[in-house]
Amino acid sequence: MNSINISHIIKNSDSKFLKSLPNFVIKVIIKIFRQKELNRTINKCSDYDGIDFMTKFLEELDIKIEIEGKENLPENGKCIFVANHPFGLLDGIILTNVIGNKYKQIKIIGNEALMFIPNLRSIIANVSVFGKNPKKYFIELNKVFASDIPIIHFPFGLVSRFYKFKIQDKSWKKSFITKAVTNQRDVVPIRFHGRNSNLFYTIYFFRQIFKIKFKIELVLFPREMFKKKGKSIKVKIGKPISHNVFDKSLSHTEWAQKVRSQVYKLN
């Protein structure tokens, strides 16, 4: 049986903050994280791997996906599929289902926490959210972008927060534009409609007020995911943007924000 052990992950992490947490706090985190429920769901899907695992996982959650613009998915899957990031784990699960079932292969630029689920290792390209990225991560990412495999990427790098009086991604990082140009990959914009609970954003505000660097709200991701059980999520897919569009008239950072704006216009 595959299982996530939060206590083991914390004690073996590179984060000094996490390692300093007392046992009673770790027990509270485990409960909030809904470790037992998450492990039960993971083990129901344990006979599946990669894309099939994500599809089965979505079935277990009984979440319906309402997709608009599916005809905009190009026949050539050598693209970077970029999206806003309102929910957390659920965004990656849904996009893997949508994109993976069309092209039958996929790589997700995802944080290293997902590697604790062995069934996902074949489709994850690691980045670190808890510290600096080791050189091997960058080498692997470059290989992925140079391949023909479809890539899912959330360019903000974090889950959407309150920004300019709305729940939305802050500025997108430019790396997906640079990789699109370098590797001649078209970019497909995708918009998720929805948000997390008030508790998620309240904890984020609390962290900002008290200047706590560790992203405490990440612990709520499984809780947020299970709260959407049996519900519908709306997704809109925009028309592909040719990599040739990203010329020198704008910087890569500016192009990234233009694509971000285009995603949020997919109403």
Features:
267 residues; Glycerol-3-phosphate (1)-acyltransferase; 7-stranded mixed sheet; two-stranded antiparallel ribbon; 9 strands
Description:
By secondary structure, this protein is of the alpha/beta class. It has a single domain (48-264), classed as Glycerol-3-phosphate (1)-acyltransferase (3-Layer(aba) Sandwich), CATH 3.40.1130.10. It contains 11 helices and 9 strands. The chain has helices at residues 6-11, 16-19, 23-33, 35-44, 50-61, 89-103, 135-146, 175-183, 198-209, 221-227, 252-264, and strands at 64-68, 79-83, 107-111, 124-127, 151-153, 161-163, 166-168, 186-193, 232-237. A 7-stranded mixed beta sheet has the order 1-9-8-2-5-3-4, with helices on both faces. Strands 6-7 form a two-stranded antiparallel ribbon. β6 (161-163) and β7 form a beta hairpin. α5 crosses α6 (89-103) and α8 crosses α11 (252-264). The longest helix has 15 residues, at 89-103. The radius of gyration is 18 Å and the shape is globular.
Order of helices and strands: HHHHHEEHEEHEEEHEHHEH
Helical residues, percent: 40-55%
- Runs in which pLDDT lies below 50 for 5 or more consecutive residues are none
Query: Terminal Cα separation, in Å?
Result: 42 Å
Please indicate the percent range of residues in DSSP E strands (runs of 2 or more). Answer: 15-25%
What would the principal axes of the Cα set say about the shape?
A: globular
* Domain module count: 1
Total number of strands: 9
Q: Quick one: CATH superfamily?
A: Glycerol-3-phosphate (1)-acyltransferase
CATH class wording = Alpha Beta
Largest sheet: 7 strands, mixed
Strands across the major sheet, in which order? 1-9-8-2-5-3-4
What is the correct CATH architecture? 3-Layer(aba) Sandwich
CATH topology: Glycerol-3-phosphate (1)-acyltransferase
What's the number of helices? 11
Mean pLDDT, to the nearest integer, reads 91
Question: Radius of gyration, Cα only, in angstroms?
Answer: 18 Å
Structural class: alpha/beta
